[in-house]
Design a protein that fits this description.
four-stranded mixed β-sheet; binds pyridoxal-5'-phosphate; seven-stranded mixed β-sheet; Aspartate Aminotransferase, domain 1; globular; 15 strands; 2 domains; Aspartate Aminotransferase, domain 2; alpha/beta
Length: about 400
């Protein structure tokens, strides 16, 4: 039986992952996703209450009453599934309406939906570029961008993270190609740092390149009205393509999209493989996402509250004396890399927080570079000031006990 030797091989591989301390164990939540959840961990143990500080639920919409109501209403009016790809019989009025609304929200000509932003990134490059073209990509871009680039025949140029001199050098190398596309995450998920879009756009102008931003960690809350990093930097009309997710701030269910200039979206609809060969987004998600945009269009209250919460948490961490990377993003890394045995410390720190009822994750090499272990905190608009203060108290106590402050 082929499986017997294959299993032996897999068991060895899994053992290696365990030995390296990298085996991922899932924590099971017995409740809607929210600021306060009930968590079973390790699996089989009784549930305990925890304040959630590791969700991408930036605006608190994952189980917002208006969102749940919109989902019920759409389920009743449009059903549950489409059982088809878009171009056969998988397009409802609400799928088109959502695309138009997303495009308007982001000041783009049009948008195209996918089942995830991962799919949007897998499907974009091969549909737009050929072996005559060039892709110029930040080394720390999201895994789905890296995989999408692998599926495309364009020449690949990688620049060091956020290094604009290196980007310029790579753009010079890429001048031999027909078209150039610079691609960057809008926000990088480990440090919460923003791409240097004004400089990237300047270089794109100078070297005749298109610019694509994956704004998954920004759409809905970064920028004065939540339009993302291009709004934050005032470069909205200089970006050609925005990919983003419906699975983070915009309700958190699933789904992704490309919002771009018209001919780009038109070409994707003809040739993007995850769009052509994978099922339509559930009507429930399409309809509910329109309700999300209605909320965001009517008021900036949620993103404003998120900004206030983030400031409160960041100021508290500074007061405690823990290290972080200065910034304004609700991703707040608590750095432990300067301490001895930082990888183990990050896990002990996360465990200590969990015992205090705070749910946050510790990351260490190779998820982050060597010597950059950390606890990554993510703030939400749904956290109350009291909840943020309890998290800060827990950080202070655990930090003191482990010698981190
Ligand atoms: C989360 C994320 C994705 C994946 O989005 P999904 O919709 O969950 O597939 C893609 N790119 C970036 C930058 C992300 O942060």
């Amino acid at each position: 039986m082929a499986y017997r030797s294959f299993k032996a091989y897999l068991d060895t591989e899994l053992e290696k992952i365990r030995d390296a301390g990298l085996y991922k164990q899932e924590r099971i939540i017995h409740a809607p996703q929210a600021a306060s959840v009930a968590v079973e961990y390790p699996e089989g143990n009784p549930c305990r209450p925890a304040l959630n500080f590791c969700a991408n639920n930036y605006l608190g919409l994952s189980s917002h009453p208006r969102i749940i109501q919109a989902a019920h209403d759409t389920l009743d009016s449009r059903g549950y599934g489409m059982s088809s790809v878009r171009f056969i019989c998988g397009t409802q009025d609400i799928h088109r309406e959502l695309e138009t609304r997303l495009a308007t929200f982001l000041h783009m000509d049009d948008a195209i939906l996918y089942s995830s932003c991962f799919d949007a990134n897998l499907g974009i490059f091969g549909a737009l570029l050929t072996d005559q073209d060039a892709l110029i990509s930040d080394r720390l871009n999201h895994a789905s961008i890296i995989d999408g680039i692998r599926l495309c025949k364009a020449k690949r140029y990688l620049y060091e993270h956020a290094d604009m001199d290196n980007l310029e050098f790579e753009l010079q190398q890429a001048q031999v190609c027909r078209h150039r596309l610079i691609v960057t995450d809008g926000v990088f998920s480990m440090d919460g740092d923003l791409a240097k879009l004004p400089k990237i756009c300047d270089l794109a102008d100078k070297y005749d390149a298109l610019v694509m931003v994956d704004d998954s960690h920004a759409t809905g809350f970064i920028g004065r009205t939540g339009r993302g990093t291009p709004e934050h930097f005032g470069v909205q009309d200089r970006i050609d393509i925005i990919n983003s997710t419906l699975g983070k701030a915009l309700g958190g269910a699933a789904g992704g999209f490309t919002a771009a200039r018209q001919a780009i979206v038109d070409k994707l609809r003809q040739h993007s493989r995850p769009y052509l060969f994978s099922n339509s987004l559930s009507p429930v998600i399409a309809g509910t996402s329109i309700a999300v945009l209605n909320i965001l269009d009517s008021s900036t209250e949620l993103r404003d509250r998120l900004e206030i919460n983030t400031r409160r948490f960041r100021a508290g961490i500074d007061t405690i004396g823990l290290r972080t990377i200065p910034g304004q993003h609700p991703i707040v890394p608590i750095l432990l890399g300067h301490l001895p045995d930082d990888a183990r410390l990050s896990q002990e720190f996360a465990r200590g927080l969990y015992e205090e009822g705070i749910y946050a994750i510790g990351f260490y090499y190779p998820v982050v570079p060597q010597g950059q272990s950390r606890i990554r905190v993510q703030i939400s608009a749904s956290h109350t000031p009291d909840q943020i203060d309890s998290a800060l108290d827990a950080f202070a106590r655990v930090g003191k006990r482990l010698g981190a402050v």
